[in-house]
Every structure is written in structure tokens, then in C-alpha cells.
Amino acid sequence: MAEIKKNEKSKEQRFYKEQFIISKNYRGRRDLLNAILDDDREYTTEEVETMIAEYMKGKVK
């Protein structure tokens, strides 16, 4: 019987800014996503959640 090796680092799906903006999950944060995400870069959902959380913790000047 052949042993199936699992990929140690499974790749998370990555999405472009536009895909996050049209997502129903981020409907209320579209303006924020437009401000903090780069157009030509791909992000994981975890990265975007972290960026949103860090932005929301920022202080108003």
C-alpha cells in the first residue's frame, strides 16, 4: 500500500484586492479595503483580517 505524504505547508488561497472588495464577507469594509490594500498584490484572508485589525487599533491624529 502506498503511503500518501501530506504537504507540510498547505498553501492558503490568495486573492487580489478586487476579489475582497466584491466579496459579501467584506461588504461593510469596502472603503477600508480600498485604502489599505495594494491593487497588484495577492493576500490571504488571514493577512487581510490582520491588516484590518491593526488599522482599527490605530490612533486618530
How would you describe this protein?
This protein is mainly α and 61 residues long. 43% of the residues lie in helices and 7% in strands. The chain has helices at 17-22, 30-36, 45-57, and strands at 15-16, 42-43. Residues 3-9 have low confidence and may be disordered.
What would the principal axes of the Cα set say about the shape?
Answer: globular
- Using only C-alpha atoms, the radius of gyration works out to 16 Å
Summarize the amount of helix as a percent range. 40-55%
* Structure classification: mainly alpha
Q: Report the sheet-strand fraction.
A: 5-15%
Low-confidence stretches: 3-9
The main pleated sheet reads as:
2 strands, antiparallel
Q: Mean pLDDT score, rounded?
A: 86
Number of discrete helical segments: 3
Question: What separation lies between the terminal Cα atoms?
Answer: 64 Å
H/E element sequence = EHHEH
Number of strands: 2
Number of domains: 1
How do the strands of the widest beta sheet line up side by side?
1-2
